[in-house]
Amino acid sequence: xxxxxxxxxxxxxxxxAGASWAVGSPMSAAVAAGxxxxxxxxxxxxSDEPAAVAVPAPADDAxxxxxxxxxxxxxxxxxxxxQRITHANAAARKLFGAEKIEGDFRLALxxxxxxxLIASDEETATPVEIAGLGEPDRRxxxxxxxxxxxxxxxxxxxxxDSWVAERMRVDFVANASHELRTPLATIxxxxxxxxxxxxxxxxxxxxxxxxxxMGEAKRMQQLVDDLISLSRIEADRFAVPQxxxxxxxxxxxxxxxxxxxxxxxxxxxxxxxAPVPQxxxxxxxxxxxxxxxxxxxxxxxxxxxxxxxxxxPIDGKVVLRVVDQGEGVAPEHLPRxxxxxxxxxxxxxxxxxxxxxxLAIVKHIAERHRALLDIASRVGEGTAVTVTxxxxxxxxLSS
Length: 399
Hints:
Strand content: 15-25%
Oligomer: single chain
Number of helices: 12
Number of domains: 4
């Protein structure tokens, strides 16, 4: 001990001994208490240097706040120590599944790039884009940081929305430029012909050319409208609708609109609607789905043949089916019918005003509503398109 330490030791001895004597304690007790206090003070003051400030260790029964802290983070967060996941917040448990989140991280993150990043001793200076975690089309920005004790802090930020927006922008430009090229060329050709003076002087030819130009312009307008609609649906792809909707009245409304445009043929559309549960749905998008399905049946069904629109409950789900008696589709075409701009018969599709986007829109609306889409067809007999929605509640409501 230094001189200062000894002085502090003696001072402690005197203070404790004096206090004991003042209250009538036996001298031996006072001496013993003074010795103990002196030793304690001497140990604490055993150096002339300023004592280091230490953070007191938490008591054994103090609550661990780690889970509470990382649960407050919106991004998926994992803490991994020696290949074992020690902590996972709510977002991570939802992403990987609560049953997989405990134990070896490789059982939860079944992704080679993600596993290599975590296993590496290096940190990620910039987030690395990861595709395929959770759902095939989701994109994540993954960061790995080393923390105290050699553990790793893994953060996954959902970048799906921005990725989808960028992909939609690229697809829109590519698809629009390709599909608009033909009608634009047609319109420009007729304008040049009329501008030459010869054909424009004949009223019959001028009227025919103007009629074709009007048809091409309307097709361009429909194409642009469908592309914009498809882009909006894709933008909301991961936002499941929450509003409850009675599907029966929407079916009757859409059928009424289509019948009004069919003149005397409106009776071909036959509605068979049973009471069904409500569904969670976007009313505008469901109306668009119905317009596309029933409209396709009208376009491609044989004249004077019935078009059946069936609505019924099956095993607690709501089934919508549109059946026509058209030429049908060969089996090799069925898997591609929902692709953008895919046409079984391009000439016929354009002649009836099709843009090649109708079933693509139906597919994306069904996906957003967590519904199953099935297309069955037989050549020469017709086509049946079925959309099966999850019910919002068990009670049957009148349609």
